[in-house]
Design goal:
By secondary structure, this protein is an alpha+beta fold. The chain folds into three domains: 49-163 and 170-255 and 285-295, no CATH class; 300-440, no CATH class; 447-798, Jelly Rolls (Sandwich). The protein is built from eleven helices and 34 strands. The strands form seven sheets. Strands 17, 20, 21, 23, 24, 25, 26 and 33 form an eight-stranded antiparallel beta sheet that branches. The protein is elongated and about 110 Å long.
């Protein structure tokens, strides 16, 4: 009987299913064999170890990036935390638990290398474990430990760790090709215990999280003394074998992972040759941290760049004043000489000592970036190819620091220098080894704007800058209307000769004191001003009298055109508002009982801008250039419908405040000496906004403190312009504060296109960011009374 076709189909399907199942089983078996093979497990563990070590390195570099900002401005970047030595040894009162970094300990000193567990709690990572579940370990070079700090500390400071590796001989060989490759730290994954290692729980330390103990020989290799040809990843004989002096000899470490030792004593990485019997001598995997990796990361930090650029700014400012002072100044090209004007006591504090080796200066007839300059300052970049700065001989060889025309100028009598003026990120296109080159001009750091009429009539000027003492004086005895001087001629201003890019803002500091002349400190005042350099290309000054050289038009020099920001220090009170006359009302506040006040004096400080940009009937303004320091203008309802309103000059706290500027018996009739700190921080608003409506909010904060009765810590914070006051002295409110919306500045018509950096608005006018380029200065005036105010220690840091 014929067989059924259906039966044949059923049988075929069954065989196919069996074959498929067999194939799946074989694949699964193959997968399991592959995944679970010793080689696969080992590879997976290596990847896991490298991942966690990389995470730890990022945390360590993150610590380095924040070090100066956390520890304070009397230290510099580059130092690293000590490892966790156990709660019984850490001696760190600010962090007492497991995972904290050690403070000082018995036996610690300069150039002492320290080995312990990775300080995960202090670094905020949580316990980091290797592929065998052990918490990571950390070795920190004695050259970079934070407790006993080496000096100088910069990107050329050498680590004191050598890295060795097995190569099939009886000794481990160094794999460090050049001194600057020596690590400043090594992070270890200790792996499983080797014979001789005891990882039992410590009886003296909290090991709740990581377990085990803090004896380095129980985790780092070799477990058996001598197994690595004399190399150990610890210090035999010290407490917990965890520290040793590396000042004279670098400490060799073996972080390459598994090292096998053959019967003939040869050492092999990972495994011995086929047929050679071996036993494991070490299994520590490590990841190196070098000085280059630290400072490459630091170079991305805006705070670090502000420090370097501020240091160079101060050096140039001091040297130009030395050159301009009577008798002049000359120094042969070479490393910059020491000077109290830019030493470690000046912001950025401590930088001079640590970075001096990289700064070169000289005087002569130079061409610097195309400009004729009597002096030059050159900051050497990071090392280029072939440059080493490891030995005293190399550090005295300027070719290890400079290149091209800059080397010839410093080393061989050349007269041409070239390079970027600002220290910047590598990402911006600046090379690591780029020399930063600054011209030192022959003019002083402040340029006076004088009143020609006073000179013509034989009077002295109301502005004088002495580059020898670096003191600016506004006002002069015997130059008042009572002495026959014309009221409109009694003005004087002084400005920084060069403008600066606003960038992310600026921070300025200065001191001042009103001097007694006769029986009084006078009845006028002065203004610290930040003006738009593009709107004010020529140094100018405002009008005399109550306009304080900030507002109005003196009819001789250029006036101060908007946009601008001023900090007014006014001795008297001009009530109400009027536009003309040397006693024009400024809406000044009342502080004495005669006008209903209670503080006992009318002297005050205030933030001012520029009043009205155009005549305004609501406020009775017909001369809009004359109300720039009139408090309360523009009025609250005077700019209704104006799409680009001017900011209002504050007439209430915190934009205005009484400050006692009057003479004091305890000061010999002078006013108190005041410390002033000013922070101006812009925030830009351009997204989806037409060019004519784009704007910048300028946040201005001013701290005003008498010298007497003010703590040294607060004074130091005010002087440190490289950091915000909120960081340096948390919780200390500014005396004055205000936020002003400043609309972009109009330029010419759009016909033919707008200049670079400007955009055409809907009104066919080109617009640019206001106060993008800023010039700083001081303005002053006199009236019927003599006045003299001495302004010193002026400096500003520019944030990029």
């Amino acid at each position: 009987m014929p067989s059924s076709p259906r039966g044949h189909g059923h049988t075929s399907a069954g065989f196919a299913l069996i074959a498929l199942l067999a194939l799946i089983a074989a694949g699964a078996l193959f997968f399991l064999l592959e995944v679970m093979s010793p080689e696969a497990i080992d590879a997976r563990r290596q990847r896991q170890d490298q991942d966690v070590l990389a995470q730890a390195r990022e945390a360590l570099i993150g610590y380095a990036l924040k070090y100066r900002d956390v520890e304070g401005p009397t230290t510099v970047y580059g130092y690293l935390p000590l490892p966790d030595l156990g709660t019984s040894r850490n001696n760190n009162v600010s962090c007492t638990e497991e995972g904290c970094d050690a403070g000082n300990f018995a036996g610690n000193a300069a150039n002492v290398m320290v080995i312990g567990r990775f300080p995960w709690r202090m670094l905020g990572t949580g316990p980091l474990r290797d592929s065998h579940g052990e918490c990571l370990w950390l070795a920190v070079s004695g050259s970079h430990q934070r407790v006993h700090q080496a000096s100088p500390m910069n990107w050329d400071t050498l680590g004191q760790i050598d890295v060795v590796a097995a190569n099939g001989t009886a000794a481990l060989a160094s794999i460090i090709a050049a001194p600057h490759e020596r690590p400043v730290a090594v992070i270890f994954a200790a792996g499983p215990p080797l014979p001789g290692q005891n990882r039992g729980a410590s009886a003296n330390d909290d090991v709740t999280q990581c377990g085990g103990n803090y004896d380095a020989t129980n985790y780092l290799d070799p477990g058996t003394a001598g197994a690595l040809a004399g190399v150990t990843n610890y210090f035999t004989g010290s407490t917990n074998n965890a520290s040793g002096d590396t000042g004279a000899t670098d400490k060799p470490l073996s972080p390459q992972g598994v090292v096998q030792k053959a019967n003939d004593g040869t050492l092999w990485a990972r495994g011995c040759p086929v047929g050679v019997a071996c036993t494991p001598a070490a299994n520590d995997s490590g990841l190196r941290v070098t000085a280059d990796s630290l400072f490459d990361a630091l170079r991305k930090s805006s705070n670090f760049r502000v420090d370097i650029n501020s240091m160079l700014d101060r050096m140039v400012t001091c040297l130009r004043d030395r050159i301009a002072a009577p008798g002049g100044f000359a120094v042969a090209p070479g490393r910059i000489p020491a000077d109290v004007c830019y030493d470690d006591n000046q912001a950025p504090r401590q930088y001079f000592t640590h970075w001096r080796d990289l700064v070169f200066a000289g005087t002569g007839g130079f061409t610097v970036n195309g400009a004729v300059c009597p002096g030059v300052v050159v900051f050497a970049g990071q090392r280029g190819n072939g440059q080493s700065r490891a030995t005293a001989i190399e550090r005295n060889d300027f070719s290890k620091y400079l290149e091209g025309v800059n080397l010839a100028g410093i080393n061989a009598g050349g007269t041409t220098f070239a390079g970027d003026a600002l220290f910047a990120t590598i990402e911006s296109g600046q090379t690591r080894q780029q020399d930063i080159v600054r011209c030192v001009p022959n003019s002083p750091s402040m340029s006076p704007v004088q009143s020609p009429t006073l000179t013509n009539l034989g009077f002295g000027q109301l502005v004088d800058y002495d580059p020898a003492t670096r003191v600016l004086t506004l006002g002069k005895a015997g130059v008042t209307t009572n002495d026959g001087a014309p009221a409109g001629a009694l003005f004087g201003c002084a400005w920084t000769p060069e403008a600066n890019s606003q960038g992310k803002g600026f921070r300025a500091y200065f001191t001042f004191r009103f001097r007694q002349i006769g029986t009084s400190v006078g009845d006028n005042g002065f203004v610290f001003a930040a003006v738009d350099a593009e709107s004010n290309p020529t140094l100018g000054c405002g009008a005399a009298g109550s306009q304080l050289g900030y507002s109005g038009n003196n009819g001789v020099t250029p006036s101060l055109t908007l946009p601008k920001i001023g900090i007014e220090f006014d001795q008297g009170r001009q009530a109400g508002f009027s536009e003309t006359g040397v006693t024009a009302g400024r809406n000044d506040p009342c502080g004495t009982s005669g006008c209903g006040g209670s503080v006992g004096y009318n002297s005050h400080a205030a933030i001012v801008y520029w009043g009205h940009a155009a005549a305004n009937a609501a406020d009775g303004v017909t001369l809009p250039a004359d109300d720039d320091n009139a408090h309360g203008l523009p009025g609250p309802n005077s700019q209704t419908g104006n799409p680009r309103p001017s900011p209002r000059n504050p007439d209430a706290a915190p934009g205005i405040a009484f400050v006692n500027l009057r003479g004091q018996a305890g000061e010999g009739g002078d006013s108190y000496l005041y410390h002033i700190r000013i922070d101006v921080t812009p925030s830009r608003d351009v997204t989806g906004v037409a060019p004519e409506l784009r704007k910048t909010t300028m946040r201005t904060e001013v701290w005003i403190e008498r010298d007497s009765g003010t703590s040294a810590q607060l004074r130091a914070a005010m002087q440190n312009t490289t950091r915000p006051m909120a960081q340096l002295y948390p919780g200390y409110a500014a005396k004055l504060a205000d936020s002003a919306v400043v609309y972009d500045a109009p330029g010419g018509a759009c016909a033919g296109g707008c200049p670079t950096g400007q955009e055409c608005g809907g009104d066919n006018v080109c617009y640019r960011p206001a106060l993008k380029s800023v010039r700083l200065g001081f303005t002053g005036s006199q009236r019927t009374q003599d006045q003299r105010v001495d302004i010193g220690d002026f400096f500003a840091s520019w944030l990029q």
